[in-house]
Amino acid sequence: MKLRKAFYLKVIKLSRLYEFILDSFLSFLYKRSMKSCGKMVRIRPSSSVFFGLENLSIGNDVNIPRFAHIFCTDAPLTIGNKVVFGPSPTIVTGNHRIDIVGKNIVDSHEKSPENDKEVIIEDDIWIGANVTILMGIIIGRGSVVAAGAVVHKSCPPYSIVGGIPAKLIKYRFTIDEVILHEEKLYPEGERFKRDELITIRKRNECKKS
């Protein structure tokens, strides 16, 4: 029994080695097919789906794990720096057209401008497992998206959002903490100003009410 288990474990390790080699080869091809791709980008093409690589831009130090589904065939997808995804993310920058009388949805190939919209995922973001991000969304810098969320509206910087549909749960930091945090991480010209943060948060409070 022990010998059999040891054999099974060796087979599992060999299969992982095969996946690693295949991913390394495919990653080389995928990254060079993207609109742009930074350094320290880890993707798993052998167990994921990518459509529209020519519209995909990825910054530095980004990890897209297994079972990702990325669809950006007709609108751009931009992923910033230091973004981490949990397992099985889905990002869709387009939609089917459903308003053509006399045609089945699957046969409606003529698209309107509103059927495809850019998705932007800014820097320093954690997207939990099984998150779905729909077209036209901006996920603000420093945000966290809880596992299982369906994001159909943009998220303000340093927000924590979750649910179906995703809603603002709270902010990661107070405004003073955001300012201190950004002083340590970003050059002066890239930091949020206090007035900007106050305006953004007031605007989102109005939307909630």
Task: Please outline what is shown here.
The chain has 209 residues and is of the alpha/beta class. 28% of the residues lie in helices and 22% in strands. The protein has helices spanning 2-33, 175-185, 194-208, and strands at 36-37, 41-42, 49-51, 56-58, 62-63, 69-71, 77-79, 83-85, 90-92, 119-121, 125-127, 132-133, 138-139, 144-145, 150-151, 159-162, 167-171.
Structure description:
It contains three helices and 17 strands. The protein has two domains: 34-95 and 112-172, Hexapeptide repeat proteins (UDP N-Acetylglucosamine Acyltransferase, domain 1); 173-209, no CATH class. The protein is globular and about 65 Å long. The model has no long low-confidence stretch (mean pLDDT 92). A five-stranded parallel beta sheet has the order 1-4-7-10-13, covered by helices on one side. The chain has a five-stranded parallel beta sheet with strand order 3-6-9-12-15, with no helix packed on it. The protein has a five-stranded mixed beta sheet with strand order 8-11-14-16-17, with no helix packed on it. The chain has helices at 2-33, 175-185, 194-208; strands at residues 36-37, 41-42, 49-51, 56-58, 62-63, 69-71, 77-79, 83-85, 90-92, 119-121, 125-127, 132-133, 138-139, 144-145, 150-151, 159-162, 167-171. With 209 residues, it is α/β, with parallel strands linked by helices.
CATH architecture of the largest domain: 3 Solenoid
Q: What class, by secondary structure content? A: alpha/beta
User: What string, H for helix and E for strand, traces the elements in order?
Assistant: HEEEEEEEEEEEEEEEEEHH
Class of the largest domain in CATH?
A: Mainly Beta
